[in-house]
Specification:
Umud Fragment, subunit A; alpha+beta; 4-stranded antiparallel sheet; 8-stranded antiparallel sheet
Length: 168
């Protein structure tokens, strides 16, 4: 190959790398699930795509699965939003209540153990829980999650390929 062709290849590869890094930092990212806290929805080793734009374009919704920086140790976690700013949240005898109404949670394999609250979700925060409540470090442990700690909303499980699907 001549020198000009090598230079063209190098520029193309560099551009692709830069575009990839910009997209990961601003639009879309990948996350590997670690542990069993989101079972049965997500399993240890699953990989999901997250939209970094979701909450720049709209507000978090109850039921969204989000990746965030843990408020105390900075590690990346994945949980489900249960409580929105202003909500009064309570877990009574295994039933999650939002504003005194039972929350329908068809994604759970088992009811939430124990009792918690009631607590009011402050402005600028959400309350997150893992789907496997008996094995989840979530807002019951570390408190309300500031919205600024959310990295993005999970929208596609892509690994393993046999389980690929959009996340609702």
């Amino acid at each position: 190959m001549n020198e000009r062709l090598w230079w063209d290849w190098l520029q193309t590869i560099a551009l692709a790398l830069i575009l990839s890094l910009v997209l990961r930092a601003t639009v879309i990212d990948s996350f590997r699930v670690q542990g069993q806290s989101m079972e049965p929805t997500l399993h240890d080793g699953d990989r999901v795509l997250i939209s970094r734009l979701s909450y720049r374009l709209g507000e978090p919704q109850r039921g969204d699965i989000v990746v965030f920086r843990h408020p105390t140790n900075g590690a990346r976690y994945i949980k489900r939003i249960i409580g929105l700013p202003g909500d009064v949240l309570e877990i009574r005898l295994g039933q999650v209540l939002v504003n005194q109404q039972p929350l329908e949670e068809p994604y759970l394999a088992r009811r939430t153990p124990g009792s918690f609250g009631p607590v009011r979700v402050p402005a600028g925060t959400v309350f997150v829980l893992g789907d496997n409540r008996a094995n989840s470090e979530d807002s019951r442990v570390f408190g309300f999650l500031p919205l600024r700690y959310i990295i993005g909303k999970a929208f596609l499980l892509y690994w393993p390929p046999s389980n690929m699907h959009f996340i609702r």
